[in-house]
Design brief:
The chain has 253 residues and is an alpha+beta fold. It is built from seven helices and 16 strands. Strands 2-3-4-9-8 form a five-stranded mixed barrel. A four-stranded mixed β-sheet has the order 15-13-14-16. It has a two-stranded antiparallel sheet with strand order 5-10. It is globular, with a radius of gyration of 18 Å. The N terminus and C terminus are likely disordered.
Length: 253
């Protein structure tokens, strides 16, 4: 599904040429999202671990690969100015844009650099996808995520616990233990990300994956969460709606 979204975005970019942002200081929101001024861009063509995703390293220990992906993007930028070609609205979240983003003066996109370093996956399905060679090289060299075992970020976000295991350290005889580590019952809260997300069948009525709960919500205390979010914008972008008992009377419908 996500690859189809990027295909649509690519076709739209042909019909409607991209506009280029002015070079600006980037605020990194997560490994695949950054903000320039008042505009938030999701990096084009890649799938990146979200902040709360866990992976397993080559020693079979869990590590916060989502936080590391964010930190890798921050290191790549290194405080330099960033410029993005705006490909239009993000089909999955209209308040965000799809961007081909590069450090000012550089020719290689941040998307390609993240794939090359093993902290993002190529999402273009065809064998001739732009970043397929970079992904293959990162996998062969055991870079980043590939050094251990993980699930594709899109499957983690959807709570798909039976998805394919990726990486060079995925032991078939430890399948159950690996999945329990990647999807723990008590997912640790990343610093500053205290919004709880819960997958819910009833949320699908409104076209969502789940429901998010703020600390001020009556449902928050004692709720066993499936996800953690750093902002309401992130929760909404990943397909979660706000719990109804969080809303003030003026916002209720």
């Amino acid at each position: 599904m996500r690859s189809r979204i990027f295909l649509v975005a690519a076709l739209l970019s042909i019909a409607f040429p991209a506009s280029q942002s002015s070079a600006a200081t980037a605020i990194v929101r997560d490994g695949g999202t950054l903000q320039l001024g008042n505009v938030t861009f999701r990096l084009d063509g890649i799938d990146v671990p979200t902040i709360d995703q866990l992976c397993i390293d080559e020693r079979a220990d869990s590590w916060t690969c989502g936080i590391e992906a964010r930190d890798q993007l921050t290191k790549l930028i290194g405080g330099k100015q960033v410029r993005c070609d705006d490909l239009g609205p993000d089909p999955s979240y209209k308040k965000r844009r799809i961007g081909v983003c590069k450090i000012e003066g550089e020719t290689t996109s941040l998307s390609q650099l993240l794939v090359r370093n093993g902290f993002a996956l190529n999402v273009e399905a065809s064998a001739s996808g732009r970043f397929q060679p970079d992904e293959a090289r990162a996998r062969d060299d055991r870079q980043g995520l590939w050094k251990g075992c993980f699930v594709a970020p899109r499957e983690f976000r959807a709570g798909k616990k039976d998805g394919a295991l990726l990486g060079t350290a995925c032991r078939a005889d430890r399948d159950r233990e690996i999945r329990e580590t990647l999807f723990p019952d008590d997912l640790v809260m990343p610093a500053g990300c205290n919004i709880k997300g819960k997958f819910a069948v009833r949320a699908r009525v409104t076209g969502n994956l789940g429901i998010y709960h703020l600390q001020a919500c009556r449902s928050y205390p004692g709720l066993k969460q499936d996800r953690w979010f750093c902002s309401e914008e992130q929760a909404q972008a990943e397909g979660f709606r706000q719990a109804y008992n969080c809303r003030s009377p003026s916002k209720s419908k």
